[in-house]
Design a protein that fits this description.
Length: about 400
């Protein structure tokens, strides 16, 4: 079939369910860039991106740049041999931004509820516009979820250039009904802010900066999250994949999963979870099969090295993974097999719709492959119950 004849929004027949109830711990939205002109603060709306079409591509025009629409964030509806990296907005599955289409796709794929991670911000060199774009995207996403008849729940992306501003973002997210907030892997540094790196700063922050989440300046943020019963997440970000680079994409992509351990350990070994035992942190899209190995290794290393390093945490590292840390996977049968090992107590399944790793439209086939021979109660915890607990979502 020629690409011109390929319908990314074609209908799929619903496949038999393997689990009778699912809460998808990680899905995404992909709104067309035209939404910015409506949701940015009034003083910035004239600066919003615009879309131009030429040949087989739509181009996003913004601040003197013109780039083709990247499609890696929206491969749902394509078979693997039809993946493409750039194209038109019409090459994206409309469930990424149209609520009705999303609910239809959830019905076909056997997904009852889902937690939605968006993105933003704008790739701008204008700091005020950059900070405003976080709020704009979060409000659009909250509105999207509010129209889903109680089936979708938003996670707000926050900036960390100023802790007071981050706390304000937490409170605003809670007031909108969002169920979590997402932070960059490391605190952001204004000294490193550039137009070219602004989007990645929202995911990665500044790994080599002078600020770290162990620092006392972030304790009021952790206290606010606990007081509001609001979980926080890291969504990859510790190591970025060169997703436009066909030579390096495959070597890069698995490295982003275990790299998320660094952010947790910065908090864990500095006693953040002792000071705030009610703090819940989610490692989203991390995979889980590596966690039991990491916990066993960390427990042994801590026991041997804690005296000279003057590490004052009260419990072995694996304790905090089972108490405070949650993690999601897409397909990880090794992790499911190790679910009783230390560190894997709180694991959650996700489809990653509509990104390039999505299980859509065959999610229940993937669930069946991952949970063959697993007792139903244990499967139900991983495909629904754990996400309900972490995000504070009411059960069916």
């Amino acid at each position: 079939m020629a690409e011109a004849d390929f319908d990314v929004n074609r209908k799929f027949e619903a496949e038999p369910r393997f689990a009778d109830y699912t809460v998808d711990a990680d899905v995404h939205v992909t709104p067309p860039p035209t939404f910015w002109a409506e949701y940015l603060s009034p003083q910035f709306r004239d600066l919003a991106p615009k879309v131009e079409s030429e040949g087989e591509f739509d181009f996003i025009v913004f601040e003197g740049t013109r780039r083709a629409v990247n499609l890696m964030q929206s491969q749902a509806g394509r078979s693997f041999d039809k993946y493409k990296n750039a194209g038109k907005l019409s090459d994206m599955r409309s469930g990424g931004w149209m609520v009705g289409a999303r609910l239809e796709d959830m019905d076909r794929d056997g997904i009852d509820k889902a937690v939605c991670f968006g993105g933003g911000p704008l790739g701008t060199g204008n700091l005020e516009l950059y900070l405003d774009s976080f709020d704009a995207f979060n409000r659009w996403q909250s509105d999207f979820c509010a129209d889903s008849n109680g089936r979708m729940f938003a996670c707000a992306y926050l900036t960390t250039v100023d802790v007071d501003q981050t706390i304000a973002g937490v409170k605003a997210a809670k007031a909108r009904g969002d169920v979590a907030v997402n932070l960059p892997a490391f605190p952001q540094s204004l000294s490193q802010f550039t137009k070219e790196g602004s989007v990645w700063q929202a995911m990665t922050g500044d790994p080599n900066g002078t600020r770290q989440y162990r620092d006392a300046e972030f304790d009021p943020l952790w206290a606010t999250l606990v007081d509001l019963d609001m979980p926080m997440t890291f969504h990859l970000g510790a190591r970025t994949s060169r997703f436009k680079d066909k030579t390096n994409f495959l070597p890069d992509i698995p490295m982003g999963k275990p790299a998320m351990l660094e952010m947790i350990n910065i908090m864990l070994y500095s006693g953040v979870f002792d000071r705030f035992p009610g703090l819940r942190v989610g490692l989203i899209e991390s995979g889980v099969g590596w966690i039991p190995w990491a916990c066993e290794y960390m427990d042994r290393a801590w026991e041997m090295q804690r005296h000279w390093t003057e590490c004052q945490i009260k419990h072995p590292p694996s304790f905090y993974f089972d108490q405070n840390v949650y993690a999601s996977f897409i397909s990880d049968p090794v992790g499911v097999e190790l679910r009783h090992k230390p560190g894997c107590r709180n694991i959650m399944w996700s489809s990653d719709y509509p990104h390039s790793e999505t299980t859509f439209p065959h999610s229940h086939k993937v669930i069946a492959q991952n949970f063959a021979g697993v007792p139903k109660a244990e499967m139900d915890w991983i495909v629904a119950g754990c996400a309900e607990k972490f995000f504070g979502i009411a059960g069916r």
